[in-house]
Write a structure and sequence with these properties.
Radius of gyration: 26 Å
Number of helices: 4
Strand content: 25-35%
Number of strands: 38
């Protein structure tokens, strides 16, 4: 796909400097860009690279324009410009382009205009698919679920029964929405399953990575608000509520009945306890374990970074003696108080 630089400038609302008639056929990094490509510079400390870049155009901040040796699109945030241009020049194929003969679709399913359903997908009774929905090959959509317009499911996504999904969502392969939450009662050592009777409600513009699981509620619903993005292999427990525009990196575990606020960012591999609340605008660094509620916005961290094994063993040995050291220190403090 090719566009003129002027077309791109208009589409992303950037200020054009140079020849707007040149054709752009791809986007690339600064180091690997070739004629016909567009690239971007978001960090001004690398502005010296602009003197030798081979791209036909560069997206830059206003302060970096003077250092640019080629056509430029000027924006306050070039990284956002990169994202927008990548969307314009995206060549990713659609998960499906029509309704495959091998798809199994119940007679009462409501299909909007321009719906595409891939090979061997199963759409059960009572389902509604709005306009421009795309269902990839091998997907399963359970009874009475509803999917909003222009939402796209890649291959082998599983949507259980009674799930509501908004518009303009994107689910990567292997995603499972609406599986049973981890609910059991213990009867003298024997586990008694508690049927999970709630639903999952997902808002608009939600993106979910590959092999992420969102459990249905036990009685009330699991709720994912508008604009949330979840990376690959995340686990969202039953009755979790995630606020608008929160971003969660891969491998994160959210325990049941957690309420996570708006505009939060959670680093990969984090574990967050359930039955508590985290307020808006909280940033949690990767591999953190959050055991208590957070009621103030800000940056939070936990855990010990990797280090040389010899150093780690020495420090761990010292940690094992902390209780003894505390007792000895307490005795010394008491003795010092008596003699003072």
């Amino acid at each position: 796909m090719a566009m003129t630089l002027q077309q791109i400038a208009t589409a992303i609302q950037a200020e054009l400097h140079g020849d707007g008639s040149i054709e752009i056929n791809g986007i690339s990094s600064m180091q690997n860009a070739q004629p016909g490509n567009i690239t971007f510079l978001s960090d001004s400390k690398y502005s010296a690279q602009l003197a030798t870049v081979a791209a036909s155009a560069v997206i830059v901040k206003p302060d970096d324009l003077a250092a640019c040796n080629t056509n430029a699109l000027v924006m306050k945030n070039p990284y956002v410009g990169f994202a927008l241009v990548a969307q314009l020049l995206d060549t990713t194929p659609a998960p499906a382009t029509d309704i495959a003969p091998s798809a199994v679709i119940a007679d009462d399913v409501v299909l909007g205009d321009n719906v595409a359903i891939g090979a061997n997908a199963v759409i059960e009774t009572g389902v509604t698919l709005a306009d421009n929905v795309i269902i990839g090959a091998g997907c399963f959509i359970g009874k009475n679920s509803r999917i909003g317009q222009s939402t796209k499911l890649w291959a082998n996504v599983t949507i259980y029964h009674d799930i509501t999904i908004g518009s303009d969502c994107l689910f990567q392969s292997g995603t499972v929405i609406g599986a049973d939450g981890f609910g059991y009662a213990n009867d003298g050592g024997r586990w008694i399953k508690i049927p999970q009777l709630g639903r999952v409600i997902i808002g608009d513009r939600v993106e979910i990575g590959a092999c992420t699981t969102i459990d249905r509620g036990a009685l009330d619903n699991t709720i994912i608000a508008d604009g949330v993005i979840l990376d690959n292999q995340c686990q969202v427990g039953h009755n979790v509520e995630i606020g608008e525009n929160t971003a969660i990196s891969g491998g994160t575990l959210l325990a049941g009945s957690l309420k996570l606020g708006k505009q939060c960012m959670i680093g990969g591999g984090s574990v967050i306890n359930g039955h508590m609340e985290i307020t808006d605008n909280v940033n949690i660094t990767g591999m953190s374990m959050v055991m208590r509620p957070i009621d103030k916005a800000g940056l939070y961290s936990s855990g010990i970074p990797a280090q040389a094994n010899r150093e780690w063993r020495r420090q761990t040995a010292r940690v094992m003696k902390i209780d003894d050291m505390h007792k000895r220190l307490s005795k010394l403090e008491k003795s010092s108080q008596k003699t003072s």
